[in-house]
Amino acid sequence: MVTFFATNAPALVSPGLDLEQSFSQTLEGFGLSDQAARLIWLPLPMLLVLVAAVVGVLVTVWLERKISAAVQQRIGPEYAGALGVLQPLADGLKLLVKEDIIPARADGLLFTLGPVLVVVPVILSWLIVPFGQNLLISNVGVGIFLWISLSSVQPIGLLMSGYASNNKYSLLGGLRAAAQSISYEIPLALAVLAVVMMSNSLSTVDIVSQQTGAGILSWNIWRQPVGFLIFWICALAECERLPFDLPEAEEELVAGYQTEYAGMKFALFYLGSYINLVLSALLVSVLYLGGWGFPVPVEWLAGWLGQSVDAPLVQVITGATGIVMTVLKAYLLVFIAILLRWTTPRVRIDQLLDLGWKFLLPLALVNLLVTAALKLAFPVAFGG
Amino acid sequence: MFGFLKQVGDYTRDAVDAARNLTQGLAVTFDHMKRRPVTVQYPYEKLIPSERYRGRIHYEFDKCIACEVCVRVCPINLPVVDWVMNKETKKKELRNYSIDFGVCIFCGNCVEYCPTNCLSMTEEYELAAFDRHSLNFDNVALGRLPTSVTTDPAVQPLRELAYLPAGEVQPHGVDPSRPRAGQRPDQVLSSLKQNAGGSAGNEGESATSTNTSKGSAE
C-alpha cells in the first residue's frame, strides 16, 4: 500500500495485489492529480487497520471469556447476542458511559496522559503488521525495530499512570510494569535480531517473503525453535499476561497501575493490553510462522491448477488466504496464551527477573551466536 | 570444569522438566474444555434447597403465645415481641412480632425452642434489598410463604451436588438434554405413589416397580 521507504522486495516474489496503485489509477481517471489521489488514499488503510485492531480486540475479549469459561467448566457469556458475541461490545459501551474519575490528590495531567501513552504506541505498531505482500500500512525499512522501540515507550506510560494515581498499589504496579518491560525487552530484541540476521532485513515484509519459499518447511520456527520460545515468553511478559501479570496481580496489588482508573481511561488500558496481545501474536506469526504464507506455497498450488499467479482472480484469492492465514496463526497463539493463563500460576517478582536476566538473556545470546555461526557455515539454509 | 558442565547439565534438565510439566498442565486445561458445565444458570435454574435448609424464618401469628423463648435463645435477642397484659382476662395480648433479617444469622435456635411451633424455617434465601430496613420483617411479612423452586414455572429446579447424569463417569460429550443424577421432589412423589399402588396389589412386585419408576424418571 503506502510505501514511505523504498521496498527492496526480492524479485522472485510476485508483486501481488497493489490496491493503492489501482485506487490512484481510478482517481486519476476522474481527473485528479497524483498528489490528491495519494492524499485521499492515505487515511483509508489507517482507518481500516484501526477498525481491524478494535474488532480483533473484541474477538479476543470474547474468546478469552468463552475459553476461560470452558476451561473452568462454565458456559460464559451467553445472552448478549448469539453465544454472547456482543458481550465485549456491551462492556465497552458500559465503560464509555461511566463517570470519569480523577482521584482527589492525583496529578490530573499525568493521570490522563498515562493511558494515552500506553495505547498510542501499541496502535502505532500496527503500522508494520503485514497481511500480504502489499497489505500493510507502511513497509518501513526499519519495520520490526520500530515495533521494539515503540514498545519501550509503553512502560513510561505505565509508570506515569502508576505514579500520578497517588496510590501505593498503583505505584508498585507501575514500578513492576517498568521493571518487567525493561528486563524482557532485551531477550525479545535479541530473539528478533537472530531472525533479522537470517532474513538480512528489518522490514516485516522481507522477513515473511524470506519464509515463503517452501511453504511450512521454510518457516522460521524450524530454524529458530529456541528463538520462537524466547520471543513468545517475552511477548507474554510484555503484554502482562499470566504467568507474568505481576503489575496487576489482583491478590497483591488490587489492580496495579489501573487501580484508580475508571470509565474511558480504564477502557484505554484494557484496549491497549488486548491490542498488544493480538499484535504480539501477529508478530510471532510474522517472524516465526511464515506470516501470510499458506503451508503449501500459493505459487505451487496455482501451478498445479494451471493458473498464472498474476491472474486477477488468483491474486484476489492469494490476498484473501494471506489475510486468513495471518489472522488464523495469530489467533491460534492467542488461544495458547489464554490456555496458559489458566494453566500456569503467577511467578514471583524475583522469579520473573531471574527468568529474564539469568535464563532468557544468556539463552537469547547463545541463540544469536549459534544463528550467526550457522549462517556462516550453511549460508543456503540460514539466509547467507 | 566438570563442576561447570554438571551445572549446565542440571540447569538444562530443570528447563526440560519445566517444559514437560507445563505441557502436562496445558493438556489438563485443554482436556477440561469440552466437559459438561458444572455451573447452575442461576435465575433460570436453581438448586433445590436441602430438606433442613435454614432459610428465612416463617412465623404464624395465631399460634404465638408471646412467651419470648425465641428472644431468650436468640444469640442477640433479635425477635421483637410486642405484647400487653390484658388485666381482665389475665392473658398476654400479642400486638406485633418482627425479626430483622439484616441482623439474623439463621442459627435456628428460635425455631428449635418455640413451644408452640409457630416458628419454622423456609427455603427462601433471596433476601437482597435496596434498603436494609426493608429486611426487618413484621408478622405479616413473616407469615408469607416463599415460592418454592420446584413449583415456580420460570425456574428449572436442579438437584444438588451431582452434575452428571446417573451412571455417567466421563464428563466429556454428555448430551446437554440429559438431566443431572437424582430425582426431583415431584418425581420422588410420583414414584412413592406408584410404589404405594404396587404394594397394595402385590407385595412381591414392589421392588421391581421401584426400579421401573426410577428408570422412567431418568
Summarize the structure.
The complex is a heterodimer of chains A (384) and B (218). Chain A is an all-alpha fold and 384 residues long.
Characterization of the model:
The complex is a heterodimer of chains A (384) and B (218). By secondary structure, chain A is mainly α. Chain A has 16 helices and no strands. Chain A has helices spanning 19-29, 34-41, 43-71, 87-97, 108-124, 143-151, 154-164, 168-199, 204-209, 220-223, 225-238, 250-253, 263-287, 298-304, 312-341, 349-377. Chain A is globular, with a radius of gyration of 22 Å. Chain B has 218 residues and is of the alpha+beta class. Chain B has a domain at 54-141: Alpha-Beta Plaits (2-Layer Sandwich). Helices cover 33% and strands 15% of the residues of chain B. In chain B, the strands form three sheets. Chain B has a three-stranded antiparallel sheet with strand order 3-4-6. Chain B has a two-stranded parallel sheet with strand order 1-7. In chain B, a hairpin with a 4-residue loop joins strand 3 (80-86) and strand 4 (91-100). The termini of chain B are far apart. Chain A binds chain B through residues 67, 69-75, 339-340, 342-344, 359, and chain B through 15, 22, 25-26, 28-30, 32-39, 41, 171.
